[in-house]
Putative ribosomal protein s34
Amino acid sequence: MSTAAPKIIKYFGRTTDFRGKPLWEILGHLKNFGVGRIVTRSAFERYPEPCYYRILQVEALPNSEDPLEARKVKVMVEKVHRGIKNPVPVQILGTSYKADYRLIPKHEEAEYCREVAQRAEKIFPRFIDVPPLLREYLKDETGQENPQMPLVLNKWGRHKTYRLAEEGEQPNVHVSMGLGTPANPKLYPAKERAIE
């Protein structure tokens, strides 16, 4: 009597972090296609503030031979991201096919959509240190002991919670140039070798 080897299952292809259902699958099973209900994405669960969509209008798309297009639906929503409500409705179309949406039950909506305190504003310094090799080069070229470069922040987005410090203002975020904490400290000597 021989014993069969255990069956080994191998998965191929790209993995995903999505946990949920496509938006059309959720809304198609709700009364009035879920208008007034609240959905969220598992991608938003990394934030401590509430992130959700309140459904305002649902529109079906024409039939398509492409299976990816057949799973899409056009939805107008009221978007709340990290506790900040978007002033104008947003249309969801390109991401509606992703199996990442979750319906919030009616009895949990009030708790899920709670008001939260605003995030503290991060104030970054106007200038930061240059990388070590460039610092050594600039010391030789300009004679400055500690050359610095201006910090540039992303200017896009509606709800910025960060900015550059004004002239004479003390920043509350420290930006340093370095390697950070190495994965294996044995590979890096305790003292930096001088660049010749």
Remarks:
- The longest helix spans residues 132-142.
